[in-house]
Amino acid sequence: MRFLEIRFRVKSPAIVTRRRSERGFKSSLDSIPGSTLRGALLSSLFYQGRVSRENLEKERNDPSLICTPAYPVVKDEKSWPSHPFVFRCKATHQLVLNKAGEVIEDLEAGRTPAIPIVCPEGHAALESLHPKLIDSKGNLVAPENFSSICVGINKNRA
């Protein structure tokens, strides 16, 4: 098994939305889902003649290419979704980090994990950052996006 990290730049506007519901697409995403990325890679390889139609069928029935979601890299800094134990003080905007590893160790040892309820300055107004995107320094990462609603109407059916 090989693991590859791919960095790419979107050269044209991309529409990346949550799964379609009965009333249309819900909202834009801050990342590219793994299934979307996998489909784009396989399509590109197929159109370049590097993957045959038979191999695509085989890949559809028995996947060998697995992709995780693609999270943005901003100013050469990777980002990923924050875990449930990352908080920020609403008053000072200071990051209050509780490492998930420590929580897991406490739970496995039968101890009650120490989850912060106040920031270092004593403010009790903590905001959970889960599942927002953060970088390695704990800064929020928000890719540029634009949302709009489009409605198509067939004038022959009106």
Automatic annotation (TrEMBL):
This is Uncharacterized protein. It comes from Candidatus Caldatribacterium californiense.
